[in-house]
Amino acid sequence: MLGVFIYLFIYFICLLILCFSFPAARYSQELVTFMKEKQLSPLRNIVVPFAQAPIFISMFIGLRRMANLPLDSLKEGGLAWFMDLTLADPYYLLPIITSCTMLATIELGTDGARLSSQNMQAMKYVLRGLPFVIFPFTMNFPAAILCYWVSTNMFSLVQVGFLRVPAIRDYFQIDPLIKHKPETLPQKKKGAVEGFKDYPCSSITAWKNMKIAREIEERHKYDEIRFKKAGTGPIVRTYRHDPTKKIINVQAKVKK
């Protein structure tokens, strides 16, 4: 389940970068036309993740309320060092396992989602930082919630690893992953600090690129209006000179 939310988060980030980056601003109109011709819809890919979201949320809320009640069966239904599922892990092993499995799923998921391009480097660093950010919040979670979370992380990790097997990808007709050599790429890989500086979704850069995209769209609409008007409207009279300016008769002045 966690892998589904990771993919959904990556998908929306890709859409933001696609909308705000300058190359995408130039080719956004061509992309929209191509998707209309091929009857492609990016919203279809997020139907399944959105359908599974209520399941994860309801399980989380239900386990938390049962632990806070507390339910008698949860007090003795644990394993090893966490026998009482209504209490937090005293050794913090479950939060650590949760963060580690999440990080492993993110690493495999981002690699499979082809986030190795230069514009996506900062996004990879953001995703890698998520397990460390949520660790302070999961430290005090009841063990019942973390058991559910770890199990879903393990299933997501197995699913991502399963789909990376070449034989499985061939069976389900999934395109193979293309790996480019670093020396053949036009741009060198940048570090975390440089990647964030050049990240296209920063506030200033995003605002500038959004203005560029809007200007290109308005210019395209203006060209369409002029094209239709030229084909249906009256013929516009043209001049060999600027009619708003007076023509000075140079020959007459010379004779004088």
From TrEMBL:
It is a multi-pass membrane protein. GO terms for cellular component: mitochondrial inner membrane. Keywords: Membrane, Mitochondrion, Mitochondrion inner membrane, Transit peptide, Transmembrane, Transmembrane helix. Its main location: membrane. GO terms for molecular function: membrane insertase activity. It is found in: Membrane; Mitochondrion inner membrane. InterPro entries: YidC/ALB3/OXA1/COX18, YidC/Oxa/ALB_C. GO terms for biological process: protein insertion into mitochondrial inner membrane from matrix. The chain crosses the membrane at residues 6-25, 46-63, 91-109, 130-151. Residues 26-160 form the Membrane insertase YidC/Oxa/ALB C-terminal domain. Belongs to the OXA1/ALB3/YidC family. This is Mitochondrial inner membrane protein OXA1L. It comes from Portunus trituberculatus.
